[in-house]
UniProtKB/TrEMBL annotation, chain A:
Cross-referenced PANTHER family: SUCCINATE--COA LIGASE [GDP-FORMING] SUBUNIT BETA, MITOCHONDRIAL (PTHR11815:SF10), SUCCINYL-COA SYNTHETASE BETA CHAIN (PTHR11815)
GO biological process, one term: tricarboxylic acid cycle
InterPro entries: ATP-grasp, ATP-grasp_succ-CoA_synth-type, ATP_grasp_subdomain_1, Succ-CoA_synthase_bsu_CS, SUCC_ACL_C, Succ_CoA_ligase-like_bsu, Succinyl-CoA_synth-like
Species this chain originates from: Stygiolobus caldivivus
Keyword hit for Ligase: yes
UniProt keyword terms in alphabetical order: ATP-binding, Ligase, Magnesium, Metal-binding, Nucleotide-binding
GO molecular function, one term: metal ion binding
Pfam family of the protein (one): Ligase_CoA
Name of the protein described by the UniProt record: Succinate--CoA ligase
ATP-grasp domain residues: 9-204
GO CC term, one of those recorded: succinate-CoA ligase complex
Length: 337, 269
């Protein structure tokens, strides 16, 4: 679960990471002096898109951003500072241990930065003073203990996948987090009901769905097969509109929902379904397709094999929907027509 | 194994010829599932049976407890089918297993199958035939798909689904090393995806001459956008690590042919 910047900063306060004084608002407000107005969106790159503004006139800045379609704002005191740093905590999958990632350059795109250093902090021993000293030496700054400790706690106690401060501002009298990026782990949210309540969020089951820019709707079962189907559509000259994995053991309702969801997107011109049934059953998939097509009209190309294959194909052919055994032929037909 | 999935797949595994001797569900000791006795604890089961592998169908919240119990009782091979186990749980489980000498396959995986002998997993039998190619895969359905593609001409020695989570018990490179030592396996197919750096590790092993058997690969996720999770919690590129491009490059440098689609794997073997 991705947190908004202001939610991430709430969590920062809980673990003792200093943040600027600020307030969240949906309407223009009065503010004395210089401030930063930050659009609250879950996507990155807000700065580049002009959605973060330093201003002396908070009221009209919010009015202006509202016209651009932004609904929620974090208004914060402007913090003069000397330097900006990058620091984050996450779990390293290779070593299966928490790491602190740091760079003396803030505001960076960490993927492209070259001066990024990783510090391993095994869970068995937890964060120690010597860890902090090493990180402080690398970043050439003092007084990081609270920040590092806080980020480490967000990952190991609140089970975040990622807790990131970019940038962390260095002032004459200490450091302060100018931004927050926190992604809580969906699978662990059941252990953190208190936090969800505090943030006013309720848990929604994450969907295996990612929207893309093309016009071919992709539905598959299993993450790998769905990704492979997207890739094949692209290789054969099409543009995938999405990634949608119905998961293992999906019933007809789930299949119906998935098709309707894609069909409602005006960008989607046709749908390619690639289904290899194991736990999932072809007849269930077929029934889902029939139910969906009663509600939406969209060309659909179905590759269907595996458990209860004959029953599934029969259900579809009775309604005049052809199926394919070979996914490449199926995708080829979809792209040609 | 008294739950819906556990009971269903126990039947399938028994039908395939797998010797399932005991099940464990706290509170259900003394009952039976498809003729297999159920015990309250692993320790109870071990008093009556010799057990060298276990398969976990326990719901995510309690799955790590079940794996810890298996590790503590010295079961050498633990196959975890369960999906959605929290990362921090797996982190602890993995490190404890290493300490105690148990091997975990998974979680969030289809298991292990030795065609025509043992199905320790949820594999649909139609895709498998005894043969000489080893398959190791990060994805379930894609494993069935590729197994089926090579079924007629080659068949499979052993097929291992290692799972799509960020932290898994056994990695691609570890399985490739096992296939290298396995006399039943002549060639190896690896099915990778974006995220992590396991594929790059295999490429390095090949380049250093530590693997002599032929490896053929497929990688899913060419068109996946970065920092978006593609279903599998592990299939996400954070901080530029484990992109499709980096995996392709590593395989190319190591002379490992990569199939453009899953259906091209056959041509490369």
């Amino acid at each position: 679960m991705k947190l908004y910047e202001y939610e991430g900063k709430e969590l920062f306060k809980l673990v003792g990471i200093p943040v600027p004084r600020g307030t969240v608002t949906e309407e223009p407000i009065k503010w004395d002096g210089k401030a930063v107005v930050k659009s609250q969106l879950l996507e990155g790159g807000r700065g580049k898109r002009g959605l973060v503004k330093v201003t002396d006139d908070v009221y009209s800045t919010i009015e202006e951003l509202k016209k651009a379609g932004v609904k929620k704002f974090l208004v914060e005191e402007y913090i003069p500072h000397n330097r900006e740093l990058y620091i984050s905590a996450l779990i390293d999958r290779e070593t299966a241990e928490p790491i602190i990632v740091a760079s003396p350059e803030g505001g960076i795109d960490v993927e492209r930065a070259t001066n990024v250093k990783v510090f391993h902090v095994p869970l068995e021993r937890g964060l120690r003073d010597f860890d902090v000293i090493q990180i402080e030496k690398y970043l050439d700054v003092k007084g990081l203990k609270g920040v590092v400790q806080g980020l480490y706690r967000i990952v190991t106690e609140y089970e975040a996948e990622l807790a990131e401060i970019n940038p962390l501002a260095v002032k004459d009298d200490g450091v302060i987090a100018l931004d927050s990026k926190v992604i809580l782990e969906d699978n662990a949210l059941f252990r953190h009901q208190d936090l969800l309540q505090k943030l006013g969020r309720s848990y929604e089951k994450p969907e295996s769905f990612v929207e893309l820019d093309g016009d071919i709707g992709i539905i598959g079962n299993g993450a790998g097969l769905t990704m492979a189907t997207m890739d094949m559509v692209k290789l054969m000259g099409g543009e995938p509109a999405d990634f949608l994995d119905i998961g293992g053991g999906a019933g007809s309702d789930k299949v119906e929902e998935s098709i309707i969801k894609l069909a409602r997107n005006p960008k989607v011109k046709k749908i390619v379904m690639n289904i290899y049934c194991g736990i999932t059953r072809c007849d269930e998939v077929a029934q889902g397709i029939i139910k969906a097509l009663e509600k939406v009209r969209i060309p659909i190309y179905v590759r269907l094999v595996g458990t209860n294959e004959e029953e599934g194909r029969k259900i579809l052919s009775q309604k005049g929907i052809s199926t394919y055994e070979d996914p490449l032929t199926c995708i080829g037909e979809a792209l040609r027509s | 194994m008294t739950g819906r999935e556990g009971s269903f797949h126990t039947k399938h595994m028994l039908d395939y010829g797998t010797k399932v001797v005991a099940g464990v569900t706290p509170g259900k000791g003394g009952s039976e599932v498809h003729g297999v006795p159920v015990y309250d604890t692993v320790a109870d089961a071990l008093k009556e049976h010799d057990i060298d592998a276990t398969i976990i169908f326990v719901p995510a919240r309690f799955a790590s407890d079940a794996i810890f119990e298996a590790i503590d009782n010295g079961i050498p091979l633990i196959v975890a089918i369960t999906e959605h186990i929290p990362v921090l749980d797996m982190l602890k489980v993995k490190r404890y297993a290493k300490l105690k000498g148990s091997r975990i396959i998974g979680p969030n995986c289809p298991g292990v199958i030795v065609p025509e002998e043992i199905n320790l997993g949820i594999y649909p039998p139609r895709a498998f035939r005894k043969g000489k190619v080893g398959i190791v895969s990060r994805s379930g359905t894609l494993t069935y798909e590729i197994a089926e593609v090579i079924k007629k001409e080659y068949g499979q020695s052993t097929v291992i689904g290692i799972g799509g989570d960020p932290i898994i018990g056994t990695s691609l490179d570890e399985v490739v090393e096992m296939f290298e030592k396995d006399p039943e396996t002549e060639e190896v197919v690896i099915v990778g995806e974006i995220g992590g750096t396991m594929e790059e590790k295999v490429a390095k092993m090949k380049m250093e001459g530590r693997i002599s058997k032929k490896i053929v690969a497929y990688i899913a996720g060419m068109t996946a956008p970065k920092e978006k999770r593609m279903g599998h919690a592990g299939a996400v590129v954070y901080m530029g690590m484990g992109t499709f491009e980096s995996k392709m490059k590593a395989f190319k440098e190591a002379g490992i042919p990569v199939a453009t689609t899953p259906y091209d794997v056959l041509k490369l073997l």
